[in-house]
Amino acid sequence: VALKSAGFLYPTADNTSSQSQRVANRLALVLFDSLPSDRWLRRAAERNELRTENQIRAYAERFVGDQRVRAKTRDFLHSWLNLEHISDISKHAEKYPGFNEEIVDDLRKSLDRFLEHIVWSDESDYRQFFLSETRFTTLRLGEYYGKEWAAGGKEGLVPIQSDKAVGLLHHPYLLSGLAYHDSTSPIHRGVFLIRFMLGRVLRPPSEAFTPLSPDLHPDLTTRERVDLQTSPDSCQVCHKKINSLGFALENWDAVGKWRENEGKKAVDTSGSYIAKDGTEVKFLDSRDLAKYLAESEDAQRAFVSRAFQHFVKQPAAAYGADTLDELTRYFRENECNVKKLLVEIAVVATRPAWNES
């Protein structure tokens, strides 16, 4: 009966309810994906205490640390990083001995703990996703990845033992998930960066793509093989954007270990990106790229857009042509604080109920 009720099926078809009740309905949908069940929210609706923006903001701030919001935020971060498409990571046993299911499980948990650590810290600074010099490790990861993860035999949150890696961009779970069974994949990594990190649109490839086998071109690096295969003009329309981002991560092999050479050649990690405003940004390596993603308005806007879509289940444009611009500006002015962004999204999503003429 409950699943067939109008209140469950059409929670925002509540024109006969009080303004506070309508706001409460929308707050619960945005933050919890449910109807108002919390006694504080129900009481606020009954007392008609959700009539002004300040009142609504106060209640959103009260609930932003709720376990239900934390769970929904974790799902959002997984969507932002496209982790649902990284389901089964396995590697060539001879090329990458010791990389097994236990390592993958530790890496998955390490990345999750890192994401939650950044979001629920006092600063909740989005930029630290890319700039943080800490990571969560285990003894098993320390043994497999060496001194950069060993941290003197400690487990948990530790300083990164290297000046080469920072933040999630260098996390082996992400790097290995965006690689082939036996080699890296600058194309997968580049597509991920341009679509998910920078929020750009790519047209579908005009034909099926099978990467050139390293065995057929043993004298070429991965970068050289990709350049060769995507050199036709019909490919370059997109691959000029994709490749130059993916190449920046070529210092990291198919399991996320550092390398300076591929075969007998030095790895070339130089790349570039043309921002939406037409500015060309050049990278020497993945640390340059990480610094750019931390401060880039393109990247921050993409993060805000995906957050709004995930929590509200509608694009920001559905709430006004300038909504995404306003939210991005708010995000940047507030030190890229993720928790404050979630509160602001909840406030904006309730506007139809409290900002009536």
Query: Oligomer, anyone?
Result: single chain
Computed over alpha carbons, the radius of gyration is 23 Å
Largest sheet: 2 strands, antiparallel
Strand order, sheet with most strands = 1-2
The first-to-last residue Cα distance is: 36 Å
Structural class: mainly alpha
**Total helical segments:** 18
Brief rundown of the structure:
The strands form three sheets. This protein has a two-stranded antiparallel sheet. The protein has a two-stranded antiparallel sheet with strand order 3-4. The protein contains 18 helices and six strands.
Defining key terms:
18 helices, two-stranded antiparallel sheet, 6% strand
Fold and architecture overview:
By secondary structure, the protein is mainly α. The chain contains 18 helices and six strands. The strands form three sheets. The chain has a two-stranded antiparallel sheet. It is globular, with a radius of gyration of 23 Å. The chain starts with 5 loop residues before the first helix and ends with a helix.
Helices and strands in order, then pairings?
Elements: H1 6-9, H2 19-32, H3 39-46, H4 53-63, H5 67-80, H6 101-119, H7 128-131, E1 134-137, H8 139-145, H9 147-150, E2 156-159, H10 172-177, H11 186-197, H12 222-229, H13 233-246, E3 261-262, E4 265-266, E5 271-274, E6 280-283, H14 286-295, H15 297-312, H16 323-333, H17 338-349, H18 351-354
Helix pairs in contact: 2-3, 2-17, 4-17, 5-15, 11-13, 15-16, 15-17, 16-17
